[in-house]
Amino acid sequence: MYIAMNRFTVTAQNADAFEALWLGRDSHLKMMDGFIEFQMLKGPEDDSGKRLYASHTVWASEDAFRAWTRSDAFRAAHKDAGSTAKLHEGAPTFEGFSVIQEIAAD
Asked: What ranges make up the beta strands (E) of the chain?
């Protein structure tokens, strides 16, 4: 498996709009081969009023994730990314991980 994450730093005044954007968007992920799951994570707010968010996708393989990034579905899901960048500070920080161990509940 492969996990792809993007981290976003969001100010308190933009948090509601940022969450609404993510909760209302069509990600187009479910149509992709190798897609397993998506989560949008909301972290703690720091002393300066900034909050960390992370998008978290799980894929069957890194190849499946890479195919997503080259797909028409990816372009459709990200078509408005430039106009919404004002909701978070800087570019999102990407992190990709290959799963080397998995322990699941029975």
From this structure: 2-11, 35-45, 50-59, 89-98
Q: How many helices (H) and strands (E) does the chain have?
A: 4, 4
Q: Which amino acid is at 92?
A: P
Sign of CA dihedral 50, 51, 57, 58: positive
77 with 69: CB under 8 angstroms? Answer: no
Residue 71 · residue 27 · CB < 8 Å = no
Q: Quick check: 23 and 73 in contact, CB under 8 A?
A: no
Can you give the pTM of this predicted structure?
Answer: 0.83
For the stretch 26-47, pLDDT in tens is: 788 988 999 999 999 999 999 9
